Amino acid sequence: RDGSPALDLNAYLEQMEHLQQAIAFFHAHPNYGTQLDNMKLTLESGSVLLEKEYRNVVHANSHAAEAQQVIDCLDEQYELMQSRAREIHTLSNIDKVAKLGEWLLKHGRPGRFLVHYSNIRGDLMVRTLTTIFQSASMATITDKISGLSAAANAAFTRSNPSFSAKNASTNTPKKATRFAPEQGPIGTREAEGADTESGLLVIAAFVALVYVEEGILDRAVPVFEKRAQVHRDLLKAPLNYVIKVLTKTVQDSEGSLAALLPLLRFVAARHVQMSTIAENAHLEQPYQSCFRALTLRCSSYIADYFERGAVPSTIFLFLPCDAMNT
């Protein structure tokens, strides 16, 4: 009762095992009722301490994925390169986390303590996604001020000492949504493409982080029956953040079809995966509304360009296959 699992977890678990064996023995001998009650209280207190230790262990060994490392897992079309994603490690001492969680579940503790894993890990995913979005947005600001005179640019930098145009412009290497003016009327609004690129980068990063976390989860929560619950709760906050970013991206598109088409193609290709995650996380309605808004906005822009007879052939490179077959 006076021990602490933080000092020596293995020794503590061994003592808990002995205590359970003693309780089983005294259950078979009703004459020792008083001792049995005391042992049960001690076992309950020890189990509560182990649940707190589980939270502490997960928190101490978890860290957010580096934004640039996640971006480097994506190719120029924002597709995931799994070999690079497997090099991202955001949970140290996985065996200790797994051992402690498995012991608690094996010995009849409710799975409520697993919410600590979901909350801690989910918050770290949101932190990484937020950093990526802010970095991409800063790169957009850099693009928008690139046309200023040298004097004006220097004045901007002096008045914003925390802003480094050079660093911001190199933090987002993906250029799939940038279009050169000669590509036609839908490709002349490069700044808007940069705005939308932030949304595309965030959802691509989310897909990458899901892949990373699923690989870790298989080891950290070895009890299959509980893994689905943890997976559902883990992805709820990150997905909610992605939905908000995508919703804002669509709302701010302002007629830029060229910017939205790569985003539509990417999301449509992963619609089944995203829908499943959203349904499990009880975010199906917000996600479907967001996807519908993106689809309708692109359809509206395409219809407008067809009416004006100003649609270049490059548009079909970014349309989802379903749209091209209709």
Structure characterization notes:
With 326 residues, the protein is mainly alpha-helical. The chain has two domains: 1-61; 62-324. The protein has 14 helices and no strands. The chain has helices at 9-27, 33-61, 67-71, 82-85, 94-106, 114-145, 150-159, 165-170, 190-220, 224-251, 257-269, 271-280, 284-308, 321-324. Helix 2 runs parallel beside helix 6 (114-145) and helix 10 (224-251) packs parallel to helix 13 (284-308). The protein is elongated, with a radius of gyration of 26 Å. The chain starts with 8 loop residues before the first helix and ends with a helix. Residues 147-151, 162-173 and 175-192 have low confidence and may be disordered. Residues 162-192 are annotated as: Disordered. InterPro entries: Cullin_repeat-like_dom_sf. Residues 162-174 have a biased composition (Polar residues).
Number of domains: 2
SS content category: mainly alpha
Strand content: under 5%
Number of strands: 0
Number of helices: 14
Keywords:
Cullin_repeat-like_dom_sf, single chain, 70% helix, mainly alpha, 2 domains, 326 residues
